[in-house]
Each structure stands twice: as C-alpha cells, then as structure tokens.
From TrEMBL:
Pfam families: PAD. The lineage of its organism: Eukaryota, Metazoa, Chordata, Craniata, Vertebrata. It comes from the Eukaryota. InterPro entries: PAD (IPR004303), PAD_C (IPR013530). It comes from Lanius ludovicianus. SUPFAM superfamilies: Pentein. This is PADI2 deiminase. Residues 1-281 form the Protein-arginine deiminase C-terminal domain. GO terms for cellular component: cytoplasm; nucleus. One of its GO terms (molecular function) is calcium ion binding.
C-alpha cells in the first residue's frame, strides 16, 4: 500500500531461535542519557550473559538493528528465560507527568512481599488458579496451590531468587542506558519456575507482557490468590498503575496462549498512529 514498506532479512547459514522473535525487539520511549537525546527511544534486544556461549539473536538481524544508530540498541540478558524474549520482563507505560512514562519490570521479590503480607493478614489459605483445573506446567493440582504452600516451597523460592538476580542485572543496565532513576521503575509481582533445562517459565500468567493501548492496558489475567473476593495480584497491579491514569483490563489467555509459553501479546498486533514528523530524517 501507499507509504508502507518492509525489509526482509533471511540468514543463510545460521539456525534461527526464539531470540529472533520480535518479542525480543522492544523500543523504549524517548529518553535523554548523559546529555544525548534519543527522540525515538532506544532498541532493546535480549541476548546471552556476557562472555557465555548461550543463545543470541541471529547475527544478520542483530547487525541490522545495530545499524539503526538513531535508536542505538541496548543489549540485555534474556537467555535465562525458556523463550528468551525481553518483553517477558520489561515493558513501558505512558504517564501524563514530566517523565512521560514508567518502566515496568517483572519482580519475584514484589510477589513474595505481597504473599507474605497476605499471610500475615490471615489469608494464607487463599487459593491460586481458581477454575483452571490442572496446572499448565507442573502437572500439579492447582486447587491446592495456596499462599502458604507457595511460601513454604523452598525450591521455588531459590529459583525465584536466581530469576530476581537476572532481572536485577538488567535493571542496572536499563537504568544506566536509558537514564532512569528508581522512581521511574515499577515492580510488578511475578513468579517463575525453572524447566528441565534450567530456563525460566512463568508460574502464573505474566502480567508484564501486557498490550499497551494508550492508557488502556490489556493485561494477562494472573489467576492469583483470591482473598476478599478479589485476586490479590490484580488488586496490587491496579494500585500501582491506576494512580498514573491507566486503565487495567485483565484478559484470560491461559488456554489460548499461556499454555504454549506465550501471552495474549504474542498472538496480537496493534496498529499504531505514526509520528507527525518525518522520523526517517532524524540523524544519530
């Protein structure tokens, strides 16, 4: 159609992997870093841990992205995840204040804090995964997963401490490369478990992989512990995001996407309104 084009890149000699998926190509909002302006934000891509032999994005695609100097890429560590995409632990939402946005990070630490709060309030027997039958990864009977059982699971706790260290590594990189302060970051409760290969998969639907439609957020429904007639994860997420003028809409995607290691964002696309200015005239 008019004013539309695309680039086709196909590696001839490299095997393609899930890090080549475009959930592994994100872009930040416009930022200013150490006096340098990035009016179109910066590209974020996931890779293996520095100096390791893990999975990386195909060289052809990676080189193409690095050639886009206007949005100079930031390389993050995502190989700790089974799928390995950056959108599994980071996203951005708009705000109307001076900063104009907040960065959201998946946070096992925030989830454990929330669950301990609920346990102290006497809600430790609140049940997760209501109406979901058998757990989609572990094969355990989800009718018996309570806050008390999650907090008593030492193996799960150790796995999530490892995951939190991986996310904290990326947190430090993002703060430096995007010029962010702690007040620009919101930690959303999340839990992961490790598969047989030692890679992380979400323990419940991963709310960070939301669709951002201006101020409307399409968030995977987490099916967290129901206390007082409401999912405590949904309540906490609303408390974090609604004061920013955002509207949280929780979408059930367990059978359609989550069971295949994805979320609703993996099977949908959003038609965005293009910039008013000619972005291709920007110079590095």
């Amino acid at each position: 159609g008019p004013d539309f084009g695309y680039v086709h890149k196909e590696p001839l000699f490299e095997a393609r992997a899930s890090l080549d998926s475009f959930g592994n190509v994100e872009v930040s909002p416009p930022v200013s870093v150490a006096g340098k302006e990035y009016p179109l934000g910066r590209i974020l891509i996931g890779s293996s841990f520095p100096a390791s032999a893990g999975r990386r994005m195909t060289g052809l695609v990676r080189d193409f992205l690095y050639a886009q100097r206007v949005q100079a890429p930031v390389e993050l560590y995502s190989d700790w995840l089974a799928v390995g995409n950056v959108n599994e632990f980071v996203t951005f939402v708009p705000t109307s204040d001076k900063k104009r946005f907040r960065m959201l990070l998946a946070s096992p630490a925030a989830c454990y804090r929330l669950f301990r709060e609920k346990q102290k309030e006497g809600q430790g027997e609140a049940t997760m995964f209501k109406g979901k039958g058998t757990a989609w990864y572990s094969g355990t009977d989800t009718k018996r997963v309570t806050i008390n059982k999650v907090l008593a699971n030492d193996v799960l706790a150790q796995q999530n401490q490892y995951v939190q260290r991986c996310i904290d590594w990326n947190r430090d990189i993002l703060k430096k490369e995007l010029g962010l302060l702690e007040e620009d970051i919101i930690d959303l409760p999340a839990l992961f478990k490790l598969d047989k290969q030692g890679k992380a998969v979400p323990y419940f639907p991963n709310t960070v992989t939301m669709m951002v439609l201006a101020k409307d957020l399409g968030i995977p429904k987490p099916f967290g512990p129901v206390a007082g007639g409401e999912c405590c994860l949904e309540r906490r997420i609303r408390a974090l995001l609604e004061p920013l003028g955002l509207c949280c809409r929780f979408l059930e995607d367990v059978a359609s996407y989550h069971g295949s290691l994805g979320e609703v964002r993996c099977g949908t696309n959003v038609q965005r309104r293009p910039f008013a200015f000619k972005w291709w005239h920007c110079t590095p």
